[in-house]
Amino acid sequence: xxxxxxxxxxxxxxTGAGALLLAxxxxxxxxxxxxxxxxxxxxxxxxxRSNLSQGAGLVRNAAAQGLVAHDAExxxxxxLAERWIVTDDGQxxxxxxxxxxxxxxxxxxxxxxAGALRERIRMARxxxxxxxxxxxxxxxxxxxxxxxxxxxxxxxDLLQILAQPEMGISRNGAGTGPLMKATKGNHIEFTIPxxxxxxxxxxxxxSGAVITLRAETAARAIARYEMxxxxxxxxxxxxxxxxxxxxxxxRSEIRINPASGLxxxxxxxxxxxxxxxxxxxxxxxxxxxxxxxxxxxxxxxxASNKIVPAFVEDFESLAEEPWGDLPxxxxxxxAKRRIDGWNNNNGTVPELRIAMPAGPGAxxxxxxxxxxxxxIGVDTVRVPLGGNADLRLIDEVAAYNxxxxxxxxxxxxxxxxxDEKGDALLAQAKSAADLAQRAALMSxxxxxxxxxxxxxxxxxxxxxxxxxxxxxxxxxxxxxYHPLPSLAQIPK
Length: 492
Hints:
The chain is α+β, with helices and mostly antiparallel strands. It is 33% helix and 21% strand. A hairpin with a 5-residue loop joins strand 4 and strand 5. The chain is globular, with a radius of gyration of 24 Å. The two termini are 45 Å apart. The model is unreliable at 1-29 (pLDDT under 50).
């Protein structure tokens, strides 16, 4: 159970947020769609970084589109590029740009796009997409409206990577939309460019409509939503989910995205105790994955301890789950024998520092993990997410539904506790000239990393939104966010 004071803290947060809103907000204008994204206040104004926060990603995605984009359902759609082809060897992607202009009215050229994309790739290689861009060799302009991306080896996930907000194209700080952006004090306004060629009155009426986007805490966003100052709240994570019940939001207005990615505990300290893979596996065995999600009222398929989810396409997992079907009592009995054995041979089992974010949902998760590990003789202490730790919570939505993303997150280029054999197999897979060979090596890499037990899978990431009615441009998707261009179809 979470600490007794957690609900009262959450209630005070919501009450305080509501008081601030009553003092600072007026009623929502009829012609606008007001959206609150759960993020830090300043995040939405900084969209040039290599790692974009939830809010900044929404802004860049709307104001500086890439060659391709995602629609409301997470499917790839054309953006700056109207069409593209891939050469037979899979090592060249050729894009034909649609005719468009920069905000100053000047025509967008292939040379400008190629230069901007090279710069975005250079920056992104320092951030969350760095390990996903290793196959890109060069970007060049071929004619006035054709851009080519050359690869060192085939990457079937390249289009999905190019659709990420970090890959949005801008020049001198300005992008090509599809929405027009203007900063208005503590929020950003987006407008749909006026379409003088609209085919009917309804389509013409949507042109020029306004979306307002604010980045705020979960408590403030929920309070704004409850008082009808926001029609949509997005960017919710597991740690703030209990606040919805405290605020008494109608359950029918909660939308849980089918997000995929990594959600679990990463070993980040290679101490004498944790350097033993048998011990790391024992810790993983002892944790009841289903109890925490049940406490949050989250429905999920049978828990799995596999790094790569079963729904990842074109991937055959070699990793086994030797204890996955065992009852929890049996798993904990095995795990306790291992911990007791280490204690007998090496002395007192050290207390483990577990880093987690703040919030009532995180209180629930930590309480679950603490109780599970205590049952096998391992004591724990909670530390802030960015503090010195032995295990740290990882909560990341996959940038694309490909096995490479999952394995890249566990690679030695990103983690201090990692499987060098699996990392070498991953590097071989990404340099393979044949897609079948790439897939086979990926399977071997996943098997090796799974057996190394550097990551405790706790399920899939939890991403939620609040929405008062069914908007045409809102759909559940695996992205973990809802693109503003799709939401720009504002109901009348």
